[in-house]
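Amino acid chain
________________
===
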Amino acid sequence: MSRRQVVLADDPAACEAGDQRGAVGKRGLRRVALASEELYAEAEASDEVTSRVARIAPRLALLATDLFTVSLCELLAVSIVHQTPSGRWGSGLVANLLVGAMLPLAAVIAFWVNTLYTRWPRQLMLNTFSEVRDVIYALAVAGCVTLGLIHLIGADDLGTSIAPVTIVLALAMSASVIPVARGTVRALMRAVAAQHFRVVVVGSGTMASHLIRYLSWDPQVTVVGCVDDDPKPGTWVIGEIDDLPATWVLGGIEDLPEICAKHSVDHVIVSFSRTHPADAIQRLRAVNPRVAISIVPRYFELLTWRSSVREIAGLALIDVAPSGFNLGTRVTKRCFDLAVASLVLVLTSPLLLVTAVAVKLSSPGPALFRQSRVGRNGSTFVMFKFRTMYDDSEKRAGDPELRNVNIMDGPLFKARHDPRVTRVGRFLRRSSIDELPQLLNVIRGDMSLVGPRPFIEAESALIDGDAARRFDVRPGMTGLWQISGRSNLSYDELRRLDYLYVASWSLMWDLKILWHTPSRVLRAHGAL
């Protein structure tokens, strides 16, 4: 059985009345409901086995990867330092094996203590970048323990050829290699569907529909339904976003523990439900402890990953992260942009040349497209892109039929099947190769590697309120919009992301966005 991604609408009445776009009617819903119940019953046994494997396999895969990676780095460190003259390994074989095994074992134990194996099966869309700090910390602890043990047992007296400098070098290499190795293993595990999350959302309103929309982008996540007291259990709701199928309310809040057990739920996400908070808290406490629970906080628009949780008399408080922009951080960001953009421009120069030739041969017109965009402090600049449309595209911008295919709300314009785009241009857009000439804008100081997307003057003139904070920084080649859905985002979501980025900027956040950009580009999710 293929697993389903589902999305909820806010108006259950649409299920009974249907709509002009061909929504299924009441009889159709009943037939689908019966078929879906049969499919759930048939898949129930296999789901339980799959759920158990999904919890164990990722941990074993990561443990084996870390053990192999640290051992390999230690062996390379020994070779680099040249501590093993001819015959030395044989004469001190037992001592070398004993001392050499200390670091990998200590690293694995430190990783386990820091929950680097247990958190993955309990966290949705966990990314390797968020673990880098914990990986470095765990390796540092493992290194200190290993060096301490070597000193205590008197490794030099045992005739070992592994000196402390070897351990330090092995740790440095491991810190660089392990995040890449872990990311690769996770990608492979996702590709073979070795890990899968079954999710229930508490709530059925606007926030619930947004949550399920985001979750549907990950093929490893299945939203089995929602739990709420209003609308009543059994009420059908219709997907309103893209062509995702519909689902129903599985039950009320009182039924949550039983629903989690029946459908082998791995994760419960609490959005804004109409249920009384006291009732919801009681039922959430009764959920099986192996089921992870996440809560969308009120005023989530103000919170970012830099926000911190602290405690006062047992009460958890969330501190809103302050703005990270000052003179020092702006200089740091600018230096980082110059260094990385210059390096990438040199490395991609052959690709730029080939692309320019392909654009010229595909249709008449220049290879580069120049357009006025609005940047920092509302100033305008000329942005460079590879031309992806026919040369008369701007003259056709006012055609009425183009407005009819606009998929964006607010002042923005995006067409899913824009007739002005050339065949080569469609590929360049999906792969984001058309954006590479903007490296020149970064070097010139018009743009940054990471920041809000630059809009044309007509669109920028209509942006107001908190969204206008986007003009406090240089626009970026990539940003939160790129890794969060690109053209699939609504105008309100773009406004929120722009505000959060400017209000809570940090260099680490830029690095995180750059880390995720290649994978999002390769998936071409939200690209037009």
